[in-house]
């Protein structure tokens, strides 16, 4: 069985963002599908897919690791975010094909089932403390036992830092009053806080609400500084969704910069 064609499909949802997929076809009539995460201009995705297809057409789609290496190691310079997102989608499509060929779900190809169910959390939002608390109550009423939110107000950049921290305290006091202490709540800073000292100030202030974790407290490129920050953090550090390839993941782990690793299957490469 050989790969005959790889195409990129872009669907536009007027109420949200583009949806970008890859479809890999074979001479056996079996095809696989993968998703490209929109890390940048979506118009770049078809170009990358066409570039990788030049190397993969004619190859055996079940030789997944070899095909990945052909694309990744065959590039003269580092591929970058949009290219690795496209390569992630192609990789997914090859797993899809292999599972169909063997008549097995992909999780069985990766070692089999480990658990019968996976706990999910819900992102909550709100401009004011009351809005945030109401969204939290609504999701807990649906059955969620864990939530995640930004530790700061949507308008925190317009505030003095001390006022932003005080506002964050008010927001999560309202959340805890609405849902109690049994529900886990994680914080996601979206790598928006530039100074590590401010991350520590904010986290220390929010510790009374028993945070589950602080996600992406600083920019993820600085793995060394993430390790130094984690040594001082009073709660778990989560990160990884914006890192590419096993090499960057290993660098983060080696620096001791993470407690909860969050690789994004549509980005990681």
Automatic annotation (TrEMBL):
Assigned keywords, A-Z: Lyase
Cited InterPro entries: DgoD-like, Enolase-like_C_sf, Enolase-like_N, Enolase_C-like, Mandelate_racemase_C, Mandelate_racemase_N_dom
GO molecular function terms noted in the UniProt entry: lyase activity
Ranges of residues in domain Mandelate racemase/muconate lactonizing enzyme C-terminal: 129-236
Cross-referenced CDD domains: MR_like
Pfam family, one: MR_MLE_N
PANTHER family in the cross-refs: D-GALACTONATE DEHYDRATASE, D-GALACTONATE DEHYDRATASE-RELATED
Protein name: Mandelate racemase/muconate lactonizing enzyme C-terminal domain-containing protein
Native species: marine metagenome
């Amino acid at each position: 069985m050989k790969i005959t064609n790889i195409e990129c499909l872009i669907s536009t949802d007027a109420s949200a963002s583009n949806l970008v997929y890859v479809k890999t076809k074979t001479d056996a009539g079996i095809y696989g599908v993968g998703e490209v995460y929109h890390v940048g201009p979506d118009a770049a995705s078809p170009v990358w897919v066409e570039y990788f297809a030049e190397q993969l057409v004619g190859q055996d789609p079940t030789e997944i690791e070899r095909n990945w290496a052909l694309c990744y190691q065959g590039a003269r310079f580092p591929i970058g975010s949009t290219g690795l997102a496209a390569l992630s989608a192609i990789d997914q499509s090859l797993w899809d094909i292999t599972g169909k060929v063997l008549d097995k779900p992909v999780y069985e190809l990766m070692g089999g089932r480990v658990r019968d169910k996976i706990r999910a959390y819900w992102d909550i939002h709100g401009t004011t403390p009351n809005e945030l608390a109401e969204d939290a109550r609504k999701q807990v009423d649906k059955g969620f036992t864990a939530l995640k939110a930004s530790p700061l107000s949507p308008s925190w950049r317009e505030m003095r830092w001390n006022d932003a921290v005080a506002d964050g305290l008010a927001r999560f006091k309202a959340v805890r009053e609405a849902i109690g202490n049994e529900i886990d709540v994680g914080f996601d800073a979206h790598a928006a806080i530039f100074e590590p000292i401010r991350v520590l100030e904010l986290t220390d202030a929010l510790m009374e609400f028993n945070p589950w974790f602080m996600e992406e407290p600083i920019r993820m490129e600085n793995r060394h500084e993430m390790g130094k920050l984690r040594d001082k953090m009073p709660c778990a550090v989560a990160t990884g969704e914006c890192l590419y390839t096993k090499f960057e993941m290993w660098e983060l782990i080696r620096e001791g910069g993470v407690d909860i690793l969050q690789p994004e299957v549509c980005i990681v490469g």
